[in-house]
Amino acid sequence: MANPRWAHLYKEYWVEVLVGRCSDHRPLLLVLSKKDRNIWRGKKVFRYEAGWAKDEECEGVIRREWDKGEERGEKSLNFMNLLDNCSKALGQWNNQNKFNRVRAIKEKTEVLKKLQEDEGRHNSAEIKRVQRERRRKNSISQVLDDRGRVFRGQVEVDEAFRSYFERLFSTSNPNTAAMEKCLQNIVPRVTSEMNEKLSRPFSKLEIEVVIKSMAPLKSPGPDGFGACFYQNHWATVGDKVCSTVLDLLNGKTSFSSVNHTYIVLIPKSKDPKLVTEYRPISLCNVIYKVASKVIANRLKEVLSASISANQSAFIPGRIITDNVMVAYEVLHSMKVSKKGKKGSMAIKLDMSKAYDRIEWPYVIAVMKRLGFCEGWTSLILKCISSVSFSVLINGTPGEVLLPSRGLRQGDPLSPYLFILCAEGLSSLLNNSDLRGNTKGISVARHGLRVNHLLFADDCILFCRASVEEWRKMQDLLLIYEKASGQFLNKEKTAVFFSSNTSVEVKRKILVEGGAIVQGSYDKYLGLPTMVGRSKYNTFRSLKERVWQKISNWKNFFLSGAGKEVMIKAVLQAIPSYTMSVFMLPKRLCKEINVMLSRFWWKSQKNSSGIIWRSWERMSQSKEGGGLGFRNLSSFNSALLAKQARRILQNPSSMVATIFKQKYFRSSSLLEAKLRRAPSQIWRSIWSSLDLLKEGLRWRVGDGQNINIWGQRWLPTPSSFRVQSPNPLLNTCVLVKDLMFEGRKVWNEGFIKSIFSEEEADLIISIPLSKRDVDDRMIWGPSKKGIFSVKSAYHLEESRSRVSKGESSEQNGLGKLWKSIWRLNIPGSTKNFLWKAGNNLLATRKNLRSKRIVEDSRCPICLQEEETVMHVLWQCPAANDVWSGSVISVQKWRVGEGDLLGLLEELTEKLSIGDMEEVAVVLRGLWLRRNTFVFDSKLLSHTYVISTARESLEEYQSSCGKITEIRQQANTGGLVHSWNPLDVDWFKANWDAALDVKQRKVGLGVVIRNDKGEVMAACCESKSFVDQPAIAEGWALRKAMELCEDLRFNKVIMEGDAQVVVNAVNSQIEDLSYFGSIIEDLKVQMKEWPNWFLVDDYKLAIWPVEIAEKINPNGYSLKHPSQIWTSNVFNAKHLVTYVGDSLEDDANSRDNSHQPENDDRSHDPHVH
């Protein structure tokens, strides 16, 4: 009807193809009116704008509406009505201020258009084309239903989706017999203790934790209020939110009042046409999501014990690569298997609309089978059955739908409920394997048989290759489908046979299967299931994906700082998932690095750019003079070492069991050999074992597993082994032989007689647990003792530098580079300073060295050779600029010959604010030089300075820079505020003072009652302590021992060591160097359930400072510990001796001496 040229000339006209109702020809409608062309304009949906929070008036509007609700009473105005009134008030307020914002947007738009025109017509046309394409993709003008009928226009499209979702979310009415048959083999795993934990009263703290953890800018639900609304205005709305959520969770309010949901349609393909080619994502109200997430957080606590090992999705401690590794090993065994009469097969399944078809009665039946209590299952049912839907078509909600089945994708609870439902399928398959009806595949003789693997709705089955087992598998799947409502998508189902399966058996199974397609699994969970002889060809798609991102036209407008973020956050993240289980070929890593390097240095789309520095040097840390880009090979090794560490830490997991049975059955992982014909994954993990061994250390427990002479257990850098000669002990002596028998104490005399003085002190300083704990292997490069990819990467980089004979420092400039990168200046300025400091700017001298120019003289002064230092500091034109800049720099000499030396001197003498101005002026000088070279225009020095200052102020204001430095008040006195306690409660304050040089620590404890009266105080000194965390741990242990001796049952223990407090309160085992102390404290806390541990920086005791003020003459302890107890104790004398316990015994006084100002009414009892 019309070609593109006609459409361009007559933009106000358009053509529509109508439905042919009486003929096979379809009429064409030519619309000549702009008015008719307007696409559907439905009711405008309210959305709270995050930017409103920056306006002080917004808070006032919300507070007024909230106060009105309180005045009317909570019962007369429920929470959703309150939000509705608030949205109307905010809408009115926004309309009143809209004119100013529209005008500002129009001004910015004009500036943007001018910039686009400056870039050229091609750029402007390209942007407009992309904008038109985006608008087209974001709207649905027509769609085909599952019967092939075409629906056009807003009304018809809405009707098509409404009809489709009505059928999809309508129950199939599964009968009880089908569910009973499916779930009869599930064994209850949820214990009564777990149910008690789940059913404990909900608290306000749980709600606040959920609110803070939510992503603030995620799409809101029908009420229009996202998480940022609650986070920004928590002081106003917090109490009402908490009471509403608690009412929901406790059954006082129906979930239906907050559970209306918008369905937004996400295309599954590039050009979707069918209604089935859109994925429904639910936009729930945040108030419902808070309640749902509180429930989900509790449910996660019992999932590990409730879900079978075959499932690895959404369960703490299990990750997606577990399934990838197990599946790859099984498929590898199938491929290399040449023996045996019977072959094996793997069936890859795909469940169609897995979440949407789950039947609600089936969800509850599974949970009851697993042992969940009635109250918990009833709460879950309320969440999933009280929902109502409206489909968003082009931003407009349609009619309300009431579903009778399905789990919403977007509900925090749905993923956990889905994997619970998958237990029905797992139980069927496991029971069939147990009875011998089907048989899984073993990767080693008499090894663990794997019959299925699950990752959410991705399922892969393993069995013997026979028609009989194929039919039995189909019967089991049919049982699961009838009970759960699931539907097998045969179009995406594939089967793979082992090498020893006969051709006839393959043919029979394929005939039996019908639509199932034979073939290898090209991908499983996004990774290749088979790696051929050419690893490069297998993984070269990663290079192509990186190139697709780089070649995007948008990236050519990025600044240097933007490119840095692009490389680190996007481009280098592309191969990370693959590198977590496969070692990539060196050639591929090198080619990707070359692509990234060219992208970084390229300034224009069609230019290659000058690569001024190798990628290897740019991959150094920022403190080392690089940009912190990843070295892909080292990062690959670190990711693989993580997998090896997980196998070592979780020996009972399925993936660890499979690998041990196949590759190191009679040895440990660290002693494993590569063996013959290994899989590509095992070859990759084995290559990372040297890195893992380098980072592992022993933490002393009972000392029964650590050899004194051969293993790493000392806290000494580099070797971590004993270096002293061994004249007395044999090489098999263990660390436990250095302790007193039957006591968890070091035998100091024996140790000093065997080892050198330095090593003896190190051994004695190692903290020992009072309990019988095993020796633990921890990750040394991390302070927490927990493996991290970051620490492993830096360890691998240091190993690489040592092997090449390189230094880990760059001429001692690490401190300077760190201060430069910490400046609050634009990223482009930081990148400029990096280039200038490393002499990477395109000066005439550098260009001449590249044979690009012949004359190396400065283009401005035409006198001296143009170097970086000359352009930015020594040139007369630069002197004019500096004369009008920072006052401190105006009279400086100009003879510095090295820019880094100049920056180091400036950093030492200037304030941070002045240094930030110097940085932007330096870049302004370089921009002025470029303007002169390319435009023959020399900007004035005042223009350079004013432009630099304006850009700095604009950047810092946009970042919301805080100029006021928050410092903790240092009162130096003894008067501190006291927070009253409940009756019969005590507060124990504890602290430690450490002298690192003498390796001594003074410990102090004060216990008060609910009136603030001191009931007991204690001080103690310890030697051979040189770490603050260990010192604070000893102080807390002393506080607990004192409270236990005095039988104080209700105690709040308060200290200023946040690291120690968080470690003791954590449910995760502490693997740090001082973790033995932490684990002891955890056990003691469990024995006293009414003890609570909190951190507070404003303590009532500071041992050293207070001791000096009360007793300036000093006091030293001859006895290691002193305790004072009294009914009423004067607070100003409570820690007289703690800090002074660090003094030498030679200067000490008699232990019975009391301070001159002692006016205690009760004599203390000294222990």
Protein described:
Residues 247-529 form the Reverse transcriptase domain. Residues 1143-1167 are annotated as: Disordered. One of its GO terms (molecular function) is nucleic acid binding. By secondary structure, this protein is α+β, with helices and mostly antiparallel strands. Among the domains are: 308-359 and 407-522, Alpha-Beta Plaits (2-Layer Sandwich), CATH 3.30.70; 535-605 and 622-630, no CATH class; 638-696 and 783-795, no CATH class; 701-774, no CATH class; 810-968, no CATH class; 986-1122, Ribonuclease H-like superfamily/Ribonuclease H (Nucleotidyltransferase, domain 5). The chain has 45 helices and 24 strands. The strands form seven sheets. Strands 7, 12, 13, 14, 15 and 16 form a six-stranded mixed sheet that branches. It has a six-stranded mixed sheet with strand order 23-22-19-20-21-24. The protein has a four-stranded mixed sheet with strand order 6-5-8-9. Helix 10 crosses helix 13.
Q: What's this entry about, in short?
A:
With 1167 residues, the chain is an alpha+beta fold. The chain is built from 45 helices and 24 strands. The chain is globular, with a radius of gyration of 36 Å.
Q: What is the topology?
A:
Layout: H1 4-9, E1 14-17, E2 28-31, H2 34-37, H3 56-72, H4 79-96, H5 98-119, H6 121-137, E3 142-144, E4 150-152, H7 153-168, H8 176-183, H9 192-198, H10 204-213, H11 227-232, H12 234-249, E5 260-267, E6 278-284, H13 286-306, H14 320-336, E7 344-352, H15 360-370, H16 374-385, E8 388-393, E9 396-401, H17 414-421, H18 423-435, E10 441-442, E11 449-450, E12 452-455, E13 458-464, H19 467-484, E14 487-488, E15 494-497, H20 503-513, E16 517-518, H21 535-550, H22 560-571, H23 576-579, H24 586-601, H25 615-618, H26 632-649, H27 654-663, H28 680-687, H29 689-695, E17 696-699, H30 748-754, H31 757-765, E18 776-779, H32 789-804, H33 814-821, H34 827-837, H35 844-849, H36 868-874, H37 876-883, H38 887-890, H39 899-909, H40 912-935, H41 941-958, E19 986-995, E20 1000-1008, E21 1014-1023, H42 1028-1045, E22 1051-1055, H43 1058-1065, H44 1075-1087, E23 1091-1095, H45 1103-1110, E24 1121-1129
Parallel strand pairs: 5-8, 15-16, 19-22, 22-23
Antiparallel strand pairs: 1-2, 3-4, 5-6, 7-13, 7-14, 7-15, 8-9, 10-11, 12-13, 17-18, 19-20, 20-21, 21-24
Helix pairs in contact: 3-4, 5-6, 8-19, 10-13, 12-13, 14-27, 15-16, 15-17, 18-19, 21-24, 22-24, 26-28, 26-32, 30-31, 34-40, 36-37, 37-41, 40-41, 42-44, 43-44
